[in-house]
Write a sequence for this structure.
């Protein structure tokens, strides 16, 4: 780095270009050089690429392609190229930029000299397989080897188009609006235990839908400072209850079972036909372990360690199934990306009959829309991708993924461009408000 001010100028110029919508993608060149940055961008885009060298660059091929220097590779539209060049010049970066690569159809990555003669021609998927091999070898040793193999197969499958959303309802329709307009804000208890960390976004989602959210800690209920009576809804949040060292939410459930007054309070809330409940992640695991207290939840599974043997934090694709769940009404058939974050999410049923009778309301799906059975489309190994369940009358819903973390479109790491305000997952919380009335 000969001139630190140039790096600062580059940062500020790129920031302004990004604000103006002139940068489509960016990759630094300091790890492997500009050729590796370009090839990695081609991997991500599943596109071919021509690397076009000047006469000077062609004479120092290794230095040009692989020098690990401070710098960036920007992808811009052809129509914006002149404007980007002007901005770089005005930023004090004249003569420090050049057109280096051009995307192309097909799966070839080529290196061309100044006369457009092909110096090297590679198959993109062969390069990708070599690039990914080290990660696969580490994963094969560290994680479940079958999952490692399934993930490598999915990465090398060019027919896998990745995430794609299907929304059979209008996500901008506020089904709760008629009830919110009267000014009433029903009370919902946002329940947490030691180690739970998802209460803030859960409260925000319910408040956005027209509820009055109250922070309720288990110690409040155990000491008698608080009670579940007077709440229309109960949401048990996710995180790491008791550090997850007592099993998947079972420590939380045990703390309730071991105190008869608490167990009776939860049983009364679940039995009240005027109330609803939502359990997410640790809350899902805890409600499942209290299944005998929930009317119509006889066939709920327990949740065991992920098949991958790893904590899974990723964006996965869910399908909403037709079910009695009051939270998912009008959403059946939707395929939506959702945040996943759990180490023990594999649904384990007491029997095949229980699995068939359980009211499954959410399942992981693959890129073709089928029930996901292979990793990583199915991140935990649950049979047929099942990851959300409700009781017989639909008032109690449990699920492992985190819709409360993506109720705004901006919270999603990937989303269709048309999603700009609320995401379709807000419908869950609006459904709850409409059901309360």
């Amino acid at each position: 780095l000969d001139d630190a001010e140039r790096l600062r100028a580059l940062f500020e110029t790129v920031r302004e270009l990004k604000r103006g919508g002139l940068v489509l993608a960016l990759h630094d060149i300091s790890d492997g050089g500009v050729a590796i940055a370009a090839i990695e961008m081609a991997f991500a885009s599943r596109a071919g690429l021509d690397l076009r060298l000047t006469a000077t660059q062609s004479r120092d091929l290794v230095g040009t392609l692989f020098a690990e220097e401070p710098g960036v590779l920007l992808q811009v539209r052809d129509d914006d190229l002149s404007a980007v060049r002007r901005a770089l010049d005005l930023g004090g970066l004249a003569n420090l930029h050049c057109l280096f690569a051009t995307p192309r159809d097909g799966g070839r990555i080529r290196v061309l000299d100044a006369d457009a003669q092909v110096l090297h021609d590679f198959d993109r998927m062969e390069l990708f397989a070599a690039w990914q091999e080290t990660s696969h070898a580490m994963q094969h040793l560290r994680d479940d080897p079958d999952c490692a193999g399934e993930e490598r197969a999915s990465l090398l499958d060019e027919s896998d188009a990745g995430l794609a959303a299907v929304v059979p309802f209008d996500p901008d329709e506020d089904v709760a609006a008629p009830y919110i307009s009267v000014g009433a804000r029903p009370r919902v208890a946002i329940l947490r235990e030691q180690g739970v960390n998802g209460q803030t976004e859960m409260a925000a989602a319910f408040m956005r839908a027209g509820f009055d959210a109250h922070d309720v800690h288990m110690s409040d209920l155990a000491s008698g400072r608080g009670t579940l009576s007077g709440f229309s809804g109960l949401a048990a949040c996710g995180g790491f209850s008791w550090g997850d060292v007592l099993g998947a939410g079972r420590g939380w459930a045990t703390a309730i079972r071991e105190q008869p007054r608490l167990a009776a309070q939860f049983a009364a809330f679940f039995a009240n036909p005027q109330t609803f409940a939502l359990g997410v992640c640790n809350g899902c695991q805890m409600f499942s372990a209290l299944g005998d207290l929930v009317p119509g939840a006889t066939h709920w599974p327990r949740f065991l360690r992920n098949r991958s043997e790893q904590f899974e934090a990723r964006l996965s694709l869910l399908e909403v199934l037709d079910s009695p769940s009051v939270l998912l009404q009008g959403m059946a058939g939707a395929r939506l990306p959702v945040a996943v974050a759990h180490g023990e999410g594999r649904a384990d049923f007491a029997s095949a009959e229980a699995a068939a009778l359980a009211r499954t309301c959410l399942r992981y799906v693959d890129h073709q829309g089928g029930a996901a059975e292979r990793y990583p489309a199915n991140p935990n190994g649950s049979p047929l991708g099942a990851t959300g369940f409700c009781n017989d009358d639909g008032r109690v819903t449990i699920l492992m993924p985190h819709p409360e973390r993506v109720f705004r479109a901006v919270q999603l790491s990937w989303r269709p461009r048309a999603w700009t305000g609320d995401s379709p997952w807000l419908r869950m919380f609006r459904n709850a408000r409409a059901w309360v009335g």
